[in-house]
Amino acid sequence: MLKLFRKGKKEQIIGVRVTTGRVRAGTKVRALRAGSAIGEYELREVRLGKEVVGEVGEGGECGLLVVGETPIAEQDVLEVFHEEIRKRTVG
Fold this sequence. Notes:
It is a single chain. This protein has 91 residues and is mostly beta strands. The chain has a single domain (3-81), classed as Elongation Factor Tu (Ef-tu), domain 3 (Beta Barrel), CATH 2.40.30. The protein contains no helices and nine strands. The chain has strands at residues 3-7, 11-17, 22-24, 28-33, 36-48, 51-53, 55-57, 61-67, 77-81. The strands form two sheets. Strands 1, 2, 4, 5, 6, 8 and 9 form a seven-stranded antiparallel β-sheet that branches. It has a two-stranded antiparallel ribbon with strand order 3-7. It is globular, with a radius of gyration of 14 Å. The N and C termini lie far apart (46 Å).
């Protein structure tokens, strides 16, 4: 994470640089501090400047609206992942 722009009770707007992969709204975020996980968050919105976008790719800088309990600090490392729940079918 590069910068914290706004912090509410559970919502935070943070500035990040995408080092690998893509960042998409609707995914989950895990924050790491000194190599240890400090919390998981819901990624609600991705912004380029004032514009809301669907995703940002590798090398891009963007703002993220994340919702979670634990505050994220500058220099924390964020991992973005997609969680899928599938129903098993017999047959």
